[in-house]
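_Backbone structure tokens_
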Amino acid sequence: MSYNSILSKFNEYYYGITEKIKIIFFRIVYIFKNKDTQKVNPLISVYVPTYNRCSILMDRAIPSVLNQTYSNFEFIIIGDGCTDDTELRVLGLSDPRIKFVNIKRKKRVFPNTVKNHWLAGPVEPANYALNMVKGEWIARIDDDEQWTEDHLEKLLEFALLNNKEFVTANVETIVDGNKVIKKGHKMYSDYFETKKLQGKSIENPSIGGTSTILYKSYLKSFKYNKNCWRKTVNSANDIDLYVRFIKANVRIGHLDDVVTYQYPRPGEDTVGWDAYDKDHAGKIKHFA
């Protein structure tokens, strides 16, 4: 058995034991703290990790967050050691809801390959943001994606009405030049999880894209796994986290409505891994 396999198996058991205990503890603490209060418009902490993609960040993610119909949010932008003009332009917006931190870029634990950057690249800035959040709910958006103006309003209403701790929704994207609605994936499937479920009582909800998530802030203790790239299945940082949510019995719901737009970046004709995988030399140079 390889070192990667051993470490992945250890992490699986560690998360499986500790996070089931964590969720019970944090639910009790939350109920105790809020037993005498009824928050009508809870604060939502929105965060976006970014690295040297200032133009698309300013054109897509930032305006779509600032123009939300739900206004009680803080917006945390984490630069992963940005060397372009991201900090200058973000701070130039002078919006009191925005908090920008350009963290020192750490040496990666993974080999410098395009696939590893795709799987684990955002982990450090994302976890840094989770340590900063002050809201009762947490939402994430990728720097090259956009929200519908009622994104937060719809997700929060859905979560509260259905007593869910973690909710996602649909994404409108482009495939071969055509608009397509992505309704999420079942986490336990041939695509993501090879474990057989026969005889097991395990929830298997549909979960949408990263920029559709909204979840209770006490789940911030579930950090992104910096060793996710070592795994043979569920190796993307977001999928790794969602499977752990399921195993910890987090109450999950999926809203069958579009709340996020995922369109090709300038000069590209597709999205996701297919787009990311096209220019290996350019990606390695970008992250060097």
Remarks:
- Confidence is low (pLDDT under 50) at residues 190-194.
- The longest strand covers residues 252-262.
